[in-house]
Write a structure and sequence with these properties.
single chain; Jelly Rolls; 3% helix; 334 residues; seven-stranded antiparallel β-sheet
C-alpha cells in the first residue's frame, strides 16, 4: 500500500510562499550524486509517498533525493550537495528539510548556502559563484520535517546549495520567504500586470475559512489542476459570507479582474464582490456583486469602479460559501 507523508504543523514562517517549489519555477540544477533517487524530487509540490514493495534495479524506490553510500568508502568525501534555482527570488525566512520515509538512510546533518546570480548561468558558473552560508551545519532527524528559521533581513537570493553530511536522502526541500520581484524589468514592460500574483510578491494574508482548500492557492501560477488546488470554505449553515484578503505585490490601480471557479461545479459561490484599501481600515468598492458560474473563468473590466484609485490590498468576498480556484488582479503598478 502506498503511504503519503503526513501534513505536519510548522512554525509561522511556513505560511509564507515556498520560493523553491517547482510550481513557481524552482529547479534542481546539479548535484554531487543522485544514484538512488533523483534530485528533481526535492522540489515537487505533492508530499512524499512510500511504497514498501517498490524497487528499481538500483535499490529501494525512494521519493526524494538520495545519494549513494560514501562514508568510509571515499577517504576524501565529506558531504554531498545539490544546487537549486529558486522559482521566485526573495528574502529567506525559514526552511523545511523533510526526511519523510528516510529512516536508516537520512543524513546526520545539513547546511545551506545561498547566492544572488543574475541571468541564467551554466552550472560551472554557478559553482564558482559568491556563496554565503545561511544555515550552518545542523542536525537532522529521520522521517520527519526539520524546520530551521533564518534571521530576519538578509540579502535577496536566487540560488541555494543544500549540503548533506555525509550522504543519504532528503524527501523534500521547502524554502519559505518573502518574494522580491525584479520590478525594474516588470515596470519596463509598461502594461498592466497581475499585482496579486505570488511571483509578483502578492500574499494572501487572511481569510475567515479555508476548511477544504488553502487561501494561498488563489494566487498561484497557472490554472488549478483540481478542486483541491483552490480556496474552498465549508458549507455555511447561517447568514453571512466568506472572505479573503490579498496584499498586493505593489501598490496600483486595478484595471481588470479574473475570478476563476475552475473545477468547482457543485460547490462554487453564488456570487462575489471585491473591495480595495490602502490601509486595511477604509475599504472601497472595486467590483460590485456579480453572479458566478460553475467551472468558469469570469473576466471583469467595464463593471469595475474606482479604476484610478490605487490600493495595496484587496478583499474578495463570496456569497454564501464555496470555492474559487484563482484570483487575478490586473493593475498598473506605481
Amino acid at each position: 500500500m502506498i503511504v503519503e507523508a503526513p501534513i505536519r504543523q510548522g512554525p509561522s514562517f511556513t505560511e509564507l510562499p515556498d520560493l523553491a517549489s517547482e510550481r513557481v519555477g524552482g529547479a534542481a540544477l546539479a548535484c554531487s550524486d543522485d544514484f538512488f533517487a533523483s534530485m528533481t524530487n526535492l522540489l515537487q509540490v505533492q508530499r512524499a509517498v512510500f511504497d514498501p514493495h517498490a524497487y528499481t534495479e538500483r535499490g529501494k524506490l525512494m521519493d526524494g533525493w538520495e545519494s549513494r553510500r560514501s562514508f568510509g568508502r571515499k577517504p576524501d568525501h565529506t558531504h554531498d550537495w545539490c544546487v537549486l534555482k529558486l522559482g521566485m527570488p526573495g528574502l529567506l525566512r525559514g526552511v523545511d528539510i523533510d526526511t519523510s520515509f528516510f529512516r536508516g538512510n537520512f543524513p546526520e546533518g545539513a547546511a545551506i548556502d545561498a547566492a544572488e546570480v543574475d541571468g541564467d548561468p551554466d552550472v560551472d558558473a554557478l559553482l564558482a559563484a559568491n556563496w554565503f552560508e545561511v544555515l550552518p551545519r545542523s542536525e537532522l532527524a529521520g522521517d520527519t520535517s526539520n524546520f530551521f528559521p533564518f534571521a530576519v533581513g538578509g540579502r535577496r537570493v536566487t540560488h541555494l546549495r543544500l549540503r548533506i553530511f555525509p550522504d543519504g536522502g532528503v524527501a523534500r526541500l521547502r524554502v519559505f520567504g518573502v518574494v522580491i520581484p525584479d520590478w525594474k524589468r516588470i515596470l519596463a514592460m509598461g502594461a498592466a500586470v497581475d499585482l496579486a500574483a505570488v511571483e509578483n510578491g502578492g500574499v494572501v494574508t487572511a481569510c475567515n475559512d479555508m476548511f477544504f482548500g488553502s487561501r494561498h492557492n488563489l494566487i498561484m501560477p497557472g490554472r488549478a489542476v483540481n478542486m483541491g488546488d483552490g480556496w474552498e470554505t465549508r458549507r455555511k449553515r447561517r447568514d453571512g459570507h466568506d472572505w479573503t484578503i490579498v496584499q498586493l505585490g505593489r501598490k496600483g490601480a486595478i484595471k481588470s479582474l479574473e475570478v476563476d471557479t475552475n473545477h468547482f461545479k457543485g460547490n462554487f459561490p453564488e456570487s462575489c464582490w471585491l473591495e480595495g484599501s490602502s490601509d486595511q481600515q477604509t475599504w472601497f468598492e472595486i467590483l460590485p456583486r456579480q453572479k458566478l458560474r460553475a467551472h468558469t473563468r469570469h473576466y471583469f473590466t467595464d463593471v469595475l469602479t474606482h479604476r484610478d484609485r490605487p490600493c495595496t490590498h484587496v478583499r474578495l468576498s463570496i456569497h454564501p460559501d464555496g470555492g474559487v480556484s484563482r484570483l487575478r488582479v490586473y493593475g498598473v503598478p506605481q
